[in-house]
Amino acid sequence: MQRGQREKWKKARALIENSDRETVGFIEGPPTMNGEPHIGHIRGRVIKDIFYRMESLKGRKVFFRAGWDTQGLPVELEAERELGITGNKYQVLNQVGEDTLVKKCKELVHKYNESWVKADTVLGMMFNYDLAYWTYKDEYIEKEWDILRTANAKGLLYEDYRVVAYCPSCQTSLSNSEVALGYKEVIDPSLFYKVKLIDQDSYLIVWTTMPFTIVTDEAVAVNPDEIYKKLKVGNEIWFVGSTSLESFVKVTGIEYVILGELKGTELDGKRYMPPLLEEVPGQKNMFNDGAAHKVFAEQFVDVTTGSGIVHLSPANGEEDFEVGKKRNLPVFNPIDDQVRFTEQAGKYRGLFVRDADDIIAEDLKRKGLLVKYGKIKHSYPTCWRSGHKLIYMARKEYFYDIGQIGESALSEASKVEYYYEQPKNRFLDIIREKKPWCISRERVWGTPLPVWVCKNCGKRIYLFSRREIVDNAKSLPDGQNFELHKPWIDRIIIKCPYCGGDAYREPFVLDTWHNSGAAPYASLKNEEYNKIIPAEFLTEAIDQTRGWAYTLLIEGVLFNGKSPYRSFLFTGHVVDEKGEKMSKSKGNVVYANEILSKYPADLIRLYLMWKASPIDTLNFDIKEMTGRPYQILNTLNNLHTYYSINAKYDNYKWSEENRGEISEKEKWILSELDELFKSYMELYEKRKMNEMVRVLDRFLIEEVSQKYVPIIRNELWDDTPEMSARRNGIYWTLGKLLRSLDILLHPIAPYLTDSLFEQVFDAKESIIIHGFEEIDVRLVDVALVNKYSFIWNIISLSNSARMKAKLKRRWPLNTMLIYSEKNVDKSYLELIKQLSNVKEVKLVNALNELPIEVKISLRRGELGRAFKREASDVEKTIQSMQNKELVYQIVKNGQVNAGKYIIPAGLFDIFYIPREGYELAADKNLVVVLSLERDEKLVNEGYVRDVARRVQYARKERGYNPTDIIESADLYVEDKELYDALFNKEDVLGSLTRVKKITTHFGNPNTNGFLKMDLDDKVIYIKI
Ligand SMILES: [Zn+2]
Ligand SMILES: [Zn+2]
């Protein structure tokens, strides 16, 4: 069945794609092909699919192509693992070869893609996979380069330093997530040294765990709020933070006298002598320029460790780099790719930086600047691959200057529809940061940065297409059609246009976020791009505020000044039923293919929409999924069966014209349908999928199944020819309701709705093609809706009175009394009688005509608050009034006029107490009282109905259709009272159950073939 539906959808999609419908733009946020899809992915995908199907139903054509994010670190790392690259990446890559790694990456991407497409297929996604985009393909890469070209032309592409965590062994930088993998307890130096202030004869005591960074030292930082103690140590004056003084003294064992103190802010701006001035020429240059070597008071300084004073090396620390930038420090970076000091480091050149630690400590000692050189055990990141301690160091990288386009990005982003406030604010705040975007990465598997640098003159050569590369190449070792990836592109030497020298590519690839951010332009042909961008609607999970939504916007604004989307729905994450994050390590991940093999796709889709607002975190609970959401689908299915069995019985075939005789009941339910349609569509436009399901659920179960069907059931039973026009009217209406529900629910539960539409209404095409037109019956009759809502209100009060009195709804009662503030139309009474199963309904004009007591009590506390000092006077006035008068005024006017006071009804509690033999239920100005008296006749009638239900059940058990007429049935009862009740009632029972002849026997049948059933405390045996 599922496959059949999918075939239909494929045809429908082709039909729509070839039509001249109005075109709607959509771009798939490409999932990364580095893992199996899970339930969180399903949630997002369902919302996308709903968008496609809803818009198609509206008569539009959505560009709905799949897209796959294929490059980047996670794929590269898994490929490395599979190839057994575990040690030093640099060396092993030389042995294995980059081409092998790239081949492996592609294999992995395609392996995961199979899983994704499989899950998508079962889920019922309407994506076009033939036209899917893949971010690693040459044609995509070349288009992505067009965005770089534009950035470069606009002066937005620039080179700058960025501090990265770098593995000296692998000779590559590590991402934050890789760094997080390798934290270990390690032994490091703990060095306290002295820094002399220039304008006075005193020293700041600085602490570091990386002595080599004193080579790149550019500033000393204190905490602005810390109190620094002025100590006399020997003949010198030292400054040490007061918070860490005790531990400092313990570690260093110094003798001291406190001379005074000052606040961190007072040290700000003072200059100091760089400790390695004589050893490092770069230090001397900076010192002579006056560009560095000042004290900064900065909040980030931790006063609880070391001496409460640290030094800053912008080339060797992320925070140092940021502060340095803020304080206009240059970046002194005398370290090469192998993490060795260069010429500019003078005495230390050629040393691996960590190997300089001890030598530097020696030098400080010689210069009288050493306080204490010890060891410390602390947590520090190491390379997860090779185990080496990472070095933070500044590397030249490529950036986009977001500052220049930040304002237009913000103004473009402000025009976008986000549907919900909170993610909008979060997103706009991120754009306001205007942080430079580092787009280069030191990796293998990615879109290469097409920039070459001349070895001879040092100029940069930008070649943003294969054509340009080929035209400028000195040699093309892999021919003109080389793959646009490492290692092939790196084998090409470009002839420098400025000096004719050899130019080599900058070894970077692009940030993968740049790949997917280029999707609107890179995945479409230019004419398609012009037609559908800005896309009408995009949606991804909330974390994409920093991810895809951001890079899309930035690349769009950079490219042509525009946001590539008009609306963006950010969705919440999916967690487990206890609210815990799903993770591999906890073993609570719900994988897409697994859950889709166990439960119907429609149920999963419906549940994910029903459970929570798109923006909220969703606790995925299988038990809950099989509750109400299952009931919704099941009710829809059952109603179709009910319709189709009955319609078949009368040979009724649904068509728009075959309307039969429509009564007020039909006009009422069709009015409700119109209301549903309106609110459903409004909720969709606001992307309130959960509320869409709620209104549809309410209409389907409460209005159609629990109200409309019960009030027409008797008319359908009447199979006389005179009533056939009426029956056709009911079939037409029921058909209309079900067809409409199929269409409305289709985007959420496509399989069931399409298959019901096909089976019950002989539809040849998918609902997608059918559209919304027929639902709009324009029948809203407000008066009718109000009338029925009043009737339902009475029925619901009657039911709750029955519940209190423990009287089943199918047990007939004699009398119902109604007091209503509103005038009750006499024409309502028949329907009320029928629905509430009473013989007689009486309307009374006043409360005192009801067999009830009314008690009134005053809410004294609230009276006091409302009337303050006059409260006791008001109370006295009320006490002087008749109870009856009070009730009358409260019910009639909603307030009490007591002398000069007007007292609102809310200050009273009214209790209705039924007299013996009655039960009641009340709602505002409506009181419904039931007489509980049941004479033998009523009791017997109740028994007949109870038994009829069991016969119905037995029919069903035996496989009969509700419309089948059965020849005979036998009943055995062992209870005298029940036997008496049924005796001579066989005709009634027969007509209630469509059995021609029913025979009642006293006793036990003592043979097989009987269904034994309970009836309260009695037993009945039925054979059909
Ligand atoms: Zn390493
Ligand atoms: Zn050159």
Q: What does this protein look like?
A:
It contains 35 helices and 40 strands. It is α+β, with helices and mostly antiparallel strands. A 6-stranded mixed beta sheet has the order 12-10-11-8-7-15, with helices on both faces. α23 (664-685) runs parallel beside α25 and α25 (724-745) runs antiparallel to α26. The mean pLDDT is 92. Residues 454, 456-457, 459, 496, 498-499, 501 line the site of one zinc ion.
Number of strands: 40
Strand order of the largest sheet: 12-10-11-8-7-15
Number of helices: 35
Low-confidence stretches: none
Instruction: Give the averaged pLDDT, no decimals.
Output: 92
Q: What is the 3D shape?
A: elongated
**Quaternary structure type:** single chain
Distance between the termini: 34 Å
Radius of gyration: 41 Å
Give the helix proportion (percent range): 40-55%
Q: What's the quick description here?
A:
This protein is α+β, with helices and mostly antiparallel strands. The strands form 13 sheets. The protein has a six-stranded mixed beta sheet with strand order 12-10-11-8-7-15, with helices on both faces. The protein has a five-stranded antiparallel beta sheet with strand order 20-19-23-22-21. Strands 6-5-16-17 form a four-stranded antiparallel beta sheet.
